[in-house]
Design a protein that fits this description.
alpha+beta, Glutaredoxin, 4-stranded mixed β-sheet, 11 helices, 8% strand
Length: 212
């Protein structure tokens, strides 16, 4: 029989290589996302792959007053990235339960697994994220308990923290989602992921360690 590979374990090994004596500290990286945007789907795969350590933080696009995602631009970007894309019936209110589960996942350190599963279900499979069975599938992929996930989905008190995070992001100049913050540098928009990667690698950025 072939070897069974644990994706969660492989991600842990890649993102937590352990301390290296004398190695410079990397700037903190935070990925801000809203599941209602197809650009979150297009960015999440690369964010998980290209950064060695990332904080996944859900924010509400309504607070930032972003423009509705352009279908034409999203499809063009998907073609450029060789990624499939479909258009489920999702919008900021319909994904609010999923965003609450995302906040739970982020608190428990499995935000990446949940976001990847949820966006694949929505933008590859065409499933609606407000459906309990779809949420349960994404939660299971992130090793979240079903009862905890369903409770989080209905917990409107979680919205306040996501609104506050979005307000801070907006006040720092973000006009588009998703966004990546590298130290004190902010890169808004899926098309700026490579700039964020370059900033992590740049000596000037590596010297900046921000508390965000």
């Amino acid at each position: 029989m072939g070897e069974v590979i644990s994706l969660a374990a492989r991600r842990f090994e890649r993102h937590d290589p352990g301390p290296t004596a004398g190695a410079p500290r990397s700037p903190r990286v935070t990925f801000y996302f809203d599941l209602s945007s197809p650009f979150t789907y297009l960015a999440a795969e690369r964010v998980d792959r290209l950064f060695t350590a990332v904080t996944w933080r859900p924010v509400l696009a309504d607070v930032i007053h972003t423009l509705p995602p352009s279908r034409a631009i999203a499809e063009e970007r998907a073609r450029a990235l060789a990624m499939p894309i479909v258009w489920p019936d999702v919008h900021s209110l319909s994904v609010r339960p999923a965003m609450r589960v995302a906040s739970l996942a982020a608190e428990r350190g499995c935000g990446a697994a949940f976001v990847l599963a949820a966006t694949r279900l929505a933008y590859c499979g065409g499933f609606e994220l407000d459906h309990p069975e779809v949420l349960a599938e994404a939660a299971a992929a992130a090793s979240l308990g079903l009862d905890d996930s369903l409770a989080a989905a209905g917990d409107a008190s979680r919205d306040a923290a996501m609104e506050a995070a979005a307000e801070r992001l907006r006040d720092h100049g973000a006009e588009r989602l998703p966004a990546v913050r590298v130290g004190r540098l902010l890169f808004d928009g899926e098309d700026r992921i490579n700039e964020a990667v370059a900033a992590v690698q740049a000596p000037s950025a590596r010297a900046v360690i921000a508390s965000v």
